[in-house]
Every structure is written in structure tokens, then in C-alpha cells.
Write a structure and sequence with these properties.
This protein has 15 helices and 23 strands. Helix 8 links the parallel strand 11 (218-224) and strand 12. Helix 2 (62-91) packs antiparallel against helix 6 and helix 7 runs parallel beside helix 8 (227-239). It folds into two domains: 2-248 and 456-478, Aldehyde Dehydrogenase, Chain A, domain 1 (3-Layer(aba) Sandwich); 253-437, Aldehyde Dehydrogenase, Chain A, domain 2. The termini are far apart. The strands form six sheets. The chain has a seven-stranded mixed β-sheet, with helices on both faces. A six-stranded mixed β-sheet has the order 10-9-8-11-12-22, sandwiched between helices. It has helices at 40-59, 62-91, 95-112, 115-118, 154-165, 180-191, 206-214, 227-239, 262-274, 292-307, 327-342, 378-381, 397-406, 420-429, 465-471; strands spanning 2-4, 6-8, 11-13, 20-25, 30-36, 123-128, 131-139, 142-146, 169-173, 199-201, 218-224, 243-247, 253-256, 286-289, 346-349, 368-371, 388-391, 409-410, 412-416, 434-437, 453-454, 457-458, 473-481. Bound molecules: nicotinamide-adenine-dinucleotide.
């Protein structure tokens, strides 16, 4: 059986006494590898190696740090197909989605190549008599990232790309469900010239996470995963005196105004609701048609489009999407389908019995559509994270905006309309962090910033872009004067604001 080891100080690291977890092949349902789950000794080794490397790395001039990022970008491009294959085999997303996962991470690396500019401080000449004030953004030290299964390349790169470029050393605790690609990324960083110990990968579960949250030498933690755990990570990390950002779950709404281009909406929904089997935090699992006529027209167009969705093995080039990540997750999604039926939603299209490769014990689940879902239903209030689309009908614009605004999650939202005034008002009013106007999955580009609101994000800084630089650095402000003895007032220091 293939073993997936930790990666510490530029080398594969193994402690045979540790327990392991199974990594499945979602296409077949088989176990394909075992991953070691770090104990506290392993975590301490990673912290020691990160501590040993950090001071010199932070003192490396920013242009040299950027050159490592440039080289890493080239290596990523050269290894993209191999990585996508590996990613797809553990996650179950189709190869084109796996390529996209790598591509979106690579774009953050491109942003990180500009770190000499992004990390510059500010300067005020003559803030008082002979006094100048300047600021610098310094690395925090040893920092950590804890990532979910659904983007095993992109989300680690959101974090370590910016953190390392800023001069930190990094401990990555990836999801134990698809842990191979994060290790491969770390190896490529070493090949790109990153000094040993600046990036370490430690696999594990709650024990490793708690160890990171409590460790006195880890100064900041970035987390992405489900909301209850995000909340826990935020509170426990903050109690231990760390800087913490913790992104949680989502239930993104797509609001469809009566004037929307419904053919465009349906084409977009097929990808946004069902792509990657709905295992995206920026998926659109809720569609809100405004007015009964819009709802009926939309439903009539959606049903044939859903029938055409092909669910198959992740390597099948014709597949729209592949299996979900584990059998446990499949059972959880099916549990929500049962719940929605019990709650009285209308099951329009049942994915449990359709379009699934019949020769496979893989974790497949077909596209599912519910209509007449209402806001009091638990299946609406909670995140399903599977290929299940729910239609929640709204009478008017206000009701639609309030649905999205009042939901516990506030990651993304989309609106389809041809009316610029309505779109503008929507963008201003809606209580959600990332908004798409005629864009189904409004994931911001790497030089902007990614982050939701409400229970989709705990802490107040986002991922990547300048918010990322801000999260991974601390500001030092220097007020200086250099009296040369020629002025009789030299000994009388004047506070700048009084000067
Ligand atoms: P998860 O919460 O199960 O796991 C995330 C990380 O937490 C993993 O590294 C895991 O090992 C660790 N973990 C699991 N249980 C833990 C516990 N009890 N204590 C401490 N740590 C624990 O999430 P997942 O299933 O891997 O990923 C899917 C979730 O992530 C969805 O809710 C999705 O919406 C969310 N997500 C959010 C964003 C965002 O930016 N808001 C992006 C991607 C995914």
C-alpha cells in the first residue's frame, strides 16, 4: 500500500509509531494509500525546522524571495498534468477541474512574485521638525495553514504562496482525505530553491490541528474548512494569542430576475451547481427565481439540461463531474436528500438513481433538483456540499435579497439581470462577501481578495491580494530624527503633531 509521509526540512519524514488514515480512490471506492497522522513529536520537528530556517529567509532580500516564486511557477506549469492526475485520483474531480484547481493556485503564486512591491512600507518626510516617519511590514515568524479537501492545490497555495513570499516559514496541515498534492507542491518549492525548513507539510487530524493552535512558536494560523471547525479554530487559536483567519462553509444563492437571460442562467447553473459534484465553497446550490413565471420557465429549461449531465469516472473526458470524495460524504449528501423530502420539498430530479456508472463501487451521486424549498427547512439552512440544487421561489426583489442576506452563510452570491440599476442596488445591499453580477462563481482574481461574511469567515482579513500580505505580516512604524548638533533646538525634541 502506498504511504504518504510528512515533509519536514526538505525531506520526507516518517514516524512508524503514528496512526494512519485511509486515502480512498473515489472512482472505485478502494483504499489507495495510507497517510500518517502526526503526533506532537512530528509537529515539534516541523516547528523546529521552520524556526531554524525563518530568520535567514526573512533576511533574504525580497527580490530573491520572489525569484523562488518565479521558479516555482515554472515548475508548476511543467508538472501541471502530473499533479492534476494525482489530485483527481484522490479527490474525484474531473481532470479539467483539477487543472483549474492548480491554475487558481498558480495565479496566487504569480501575485506572490510581486512581493517586493506588495511588501513595501510607507514613508512621510518631515512629519515634524527634522522628523521622518516610515513603516515596514515584517514577517510574523513561523506560521501555519490548515486546509480542506476540496481544493488541495489552490488553497494551500493561497496561504503558503503569500506567507512565504513575505518571509515567514510555514507549516501546512492539508486535508487527510487528499494529502498527496500538497506534498508534491512542497517538493517543487524545494526544487525551486526554497531553503529547507521554510515549507513543511505535516499530515494529521484534530490532534495535529490542536497542536498547531496551542503551539507557542506558531504566530498565525489560516484555516479553511467547515464552519463549526472554523469557529473552533478561531476561538482556540485566538485564546492562545495567535493571529487567526478561519474561512467556513457556504450556501450561495443565485438570484434570477424576470428579465434575466434564462438560457445563460441554465448553462451557468449546470457548472455552478453541479460542477465538481457541488464540492466547492463557491458553488451555487440555491437558485432564487423572482416571480412564479420566472420559476416555471427556469424549471422547464433546467430539467433537460440536468438530464444531459454526465457523471462518470474523473478521467473520462466526457464527464461533467466525477465521484464525491468519500463514501462517508456520499452518505451525508444522501441524508440531506432524505431530509429535504421529509421536510416537504418537491424532488424534481433524483440523482441517487440516475446517470451513475453502474459498474463501479465509486462514490457517485447524480445531479439532484428540488423545488418549493422554503427558508424554514433545515436542508436549506445547512450546507449540503454535494450535487444538489434547491429552488427557493421569491415573490419580489426584496424577498430575494433578504433570503441571501439573512442566511447564516455569506460567502458568495450571484444575480442575473439585464437591469444595471437593480444589479447595483443588489451589490450594495446584499449581506454577503463576494458578489457576481451575471457571473455564477464570483471567485475574485488573485490580486483582489477572497473571503466571505457571517459564518463563512471568522476573523477579519481575507485570503491573498493585499489582505493576504496584511495577514502574514506585522507593521512596524519608525519615527526618526538625526540631529547633527548645528541647530540650537537640536536638544528639544518636538513631538511631530506639535511641531
Ligand atoms: P473540514 O472542516 O472537515 O476539514 C478542514 C480541515 O480541518 C482539515 O484539514 C481537517 O483535517 C481539519 N479538521 C477536521 N476535523 C477537525 C476537528 N474536529 N478539529 C480540528 N480540525 C479538524 O472541511 P472539509 O470537509 O475538508 O472541506 C469542506 C468544507 O470547507 C466545506 O464546508 C466548504 O464550504 C469549506 N470551504 C470553505 C472555503 C472558504 O473559503 N470559505 C473554501 C473551501 C472549502
Amino acid at each position: 500500500m502506498r504511504q504518504i509521509n510528512h515533509y519536514i526540512a526538505g525531506k520526507s519524514y516518517i514516524d512508524e509509531s503514528e496512526s494512519t488514515a485511509s486515502v480512498f480512490a473515489p472512482n472505485t471506492g478502494d483504499v489507495q494509500a495510507e497517510v500518517f497522522l502526526a503526533n506532537q513529536n512530528t509537529l515539534q520537528k516541523a516547528v523546529d525546522s521552520a524556526l531554524a530556517a525563518q530568520t535567514e529567509w526573512a533576511a533574504t532580500n525580497p527580490q530573491r524571495r520572489a525569484r523562488v516564486m518565479f521558479k516555482f511557477k515554472e515548475l508548476l506549469e511543467a508538472n501541471r498534468d502530473r499533479l492534476a492526475q494525482l489530485l483527481s485520483s484522490e479527490h474525484g474531480k474531473v481532470l479539467s477541474d483539477a487543472q483549474g484547481d492548480i491554475q487558481r493556485g498558480l495565479e496566487v503564486i504569480e501575485f506572490a512574485c510581486g512581493i517586493p512591491h506588495a511588501q513595501k512600507g510607507e514613508y512621510t518626510e518631515g512629519a515634524g521638525p527634522g522628523i521622518d516617519v516610515y513603516s515596514m511590514r515584517q514577517a510574523l515568524g513561523v506560521v501555519a495553514g490548515i486546509t480542506p479537501f476540496n481544493f488541495p492545490a489552490m488553497i494551500p497555495m493561497w496561504m503558503f504562496g503569500v506567507a512565504i513570499a513575505c518571509g515567514n516559514s510555514f507549516i501546512l496541515k492539508p486535508s487527510e482525505r487528499d494529502p498527496s498534492v500538497p506534498v508534491e507542491l512542497a517538493k517543487l518549492m524545494t526544487e525551486a530553491g526554497l531553503p529547507d525548513g521554510v515549507l513543511n507539510v505535516v499530515h494529521g487530524n484534530k490532534e495535529a490541528v490542536d497542536g498547531i493552535l496551542d503551539h507557542k512558536d506558531i504566530k498565525a494560523v489560516s484555516f479553511v474548512g467547515s464552519s463549526d471547525i472554523a469557529n473552533y479554530v478561531y476561538e482556540r487559536g485566538a485564546r492562545a494569542g495567535k493571529r487567526v483567519q478561519a474561512m467556513g462553509g457556504a450556501k450561495n444563492h443565485g438570484i434570477i430576475m424576470p428579465d434575466a437571460d434564462l438560457d445563460q442562467v441554465v448553462a451557468d447553473l449546470v457548472g455552478a451547481a453541479y460542477g465538481s459534484a457541488g464540492e466547492r465553497c463557491m458553488a451555487l446550490p440555491v437558485v432564487v427565481p423572482v416571480g412564479e413565471e420566472t420559476a416555471e420557465k427556469l424549471k422547464a429549461k433546467l430539467i433537460p439540461a440536468i438530464k444531459d449531465i454526465m457523471v462518470s469516472h474523473s478521467e473520462d473526458p466526457n464527464a461533467h463531474y466525477g465521484p464525491v470524495v468519500t463514501g462517508e460524504h456520499k452518505a451525508r449528501i444522501e441524508g440531506y436528500i432524505d431530509l429535504a423530502i421529509e421536510e416537504g420539498a418537491e424532488l424534481v430530479y433524483d440523482g441517487r438513481h440516475s446517470q451513475i456508472p453502474t459498474d463501479s463501487k465509486g462514490f457517485f451521486i447524480g445531479p439532484t433538483l428540488f423545488d418549493h424549498v422554503t427558508k424554514d427547512m433545515r436542508s436549506y439552512q445547512e450546507e449540503i456540499f454535494g450535487p444538489v440544487l434547491q429552488i427557493v421561489r421569491a415573490n419580489d426583489f426584496n424577498e430575494a435579497v433578504n433570503l441571501a442576506s439573512d442566511h447564516q452563510y455569506g460567502n458568495g452570491v450571484a444575480m442575473y439581470t439585464r437591469n444595471g440599476h437593480a444589479a447595483r442596488e443588489f451589490a450594495q445591499r446584499v449581506n454577503v462577501g463576494m458578489v457576481g453580477i451575471n457571473v455564477p462563481i464570483p471567485v475574485p482574481v488573485a490580486y483582489h481578495t477572497f473571503g466571505g461574511w457571517k459564518r463563512s469567515s471568522f476573523g477579519d482579513t481575507n485570503q491573498h491580494g493585499m489582505e493576504g500580505v496584511k495577514f502574514w505580516t506585522k507593521v512596524k512604524t519608525i519615527t526618526q530624527r538625526w540631529p547633527d548638533g548645528s541647530d540650537t533646538n537640536d536638544n528639544a525634541f518636538v513631538i511631530p503633531t506639535m511641531g
